[in-house]
Design a protein that fits this description.
The protein is an alpha+beta fold and about 250 residues long. The protein contains nine helices and four strands; from the N terminus they run H-H-E-H-H-H-H-E-H-E-H-E-H. It starts with 10 loop residues before the first helix and ends in a 12-residue tail after the last helix. The protein has helices at about 10-25, 40-50, 65-80, 85-90, 105-120, 125-135, 155-175, 190-200, 230-235; strands at about 60-65, 145-150, 180-185, 205-215.
């Protein structure tokens, strides 16, 4: 893809297009079976490859699963997930979430979970339906394309910061093509099963998975709208130096 310049669009159109792609990105949990052409997947990843990374290390590695390969892997993961004994032995390659939840993160986590379950009519304590709903992660919510992202185990935390920028670019580039995504840390505990099926080398660590496709806008779960904090709640503007106190 040739590098594009801002001169192709006027500034307002360009700003609105970028803002639209970012603001309309959401975690979609029900997809249509409509195929996504390989050239579209490649275009999204090529665009995302221009994401910033420290010393231009470009730490990302991507595994794309579709068709029979995706179905076979999904079935293997589901078999483990549905076996309590095997599922209890699973470990994650790194701690994505905090080991001890504190305010305000605990409240935000609970709200998004119960808002989703409320839409689906899943009552608190209904472990069977919760398990079934969570298990939809492992079918990529019926999306035709699944993505797995890995990173060299020798790299440090800074490369995960770079990876976050790459993942955001993937999702924004997908929106530019009127596609949707769902980034999924839920796959982490199945990293060994995923590595075995996709022949991922031991030196690569799973960062997360992602669903990619066309959203099923008729599904109730896709009406979930997560709240965002106002800029004033997380931003401090420092206009003048403060006097030091003794």
């Amino acid at each position: 893809m040739e590098r594009m310049t801002a001169s192709l669009l006027d500034r307002q159109t360009l700003r609105e297009a970028v803002d639209w792609a970012i603001v309309t990105r959401r975690s979609v949990r029900a997809f249509l079976p409509t195929p996504v052409p390989t050239r579209e997947i490649e275009a999204i990843l090529e665009t995302a490859s221009h994401s910033a990374s420290g010393m231009n290390m470009q730490p990302w590695r991507v595994h794309v699963v579709t068709g029979a390969a995706k179905n076979e892997l999904c079935a293997a993961i589901a078999a483990v997930d549905d076996d309590p004994a095997r599922a209890a032995e699973l470990t994650e390659p790194y701690d994505y979430y905090p080991r001890h939840w504190v305010t305000p993160y605990l409240e935000r986590r609970r709200k998004v979970g119960w808002d989703l379950y409320g839409l689906l009519g899943i009552e608190k304590g209904d472990k069977a339906r919760m398990h079934l709903q969570h298990g939809r992660n492992y079918r990529f919510f019926d999306a035709p394309v699944g993505l797995f992202f890995t990173v060299d185990r020798q790299l440090q935390e800074g490369s995960l910061i770079d990876y976050g920028m790459f993942l955001q670019s993937v999702m924004v580039a997908a929106r530019a093509r009127h596609l949707h995504t769902c980034p999924q840390a839920a796959f982490l505990k199945f990293h060994r099963e995923i590595a075995r099926h996709l022949q991922i080398p031991d030196g690569q660590m799973l960062v997360c998975g992602m669903s990619l496709g066309h959203a099923n806008e008729s599904s109730i779960e896709n009406t979930l709208a997560t709240e965002r904090e106002p800029v004033s709640s997380f931003t401090t503007f420092h206009e003048h130096p403060k006097e030091a106190t003794t």
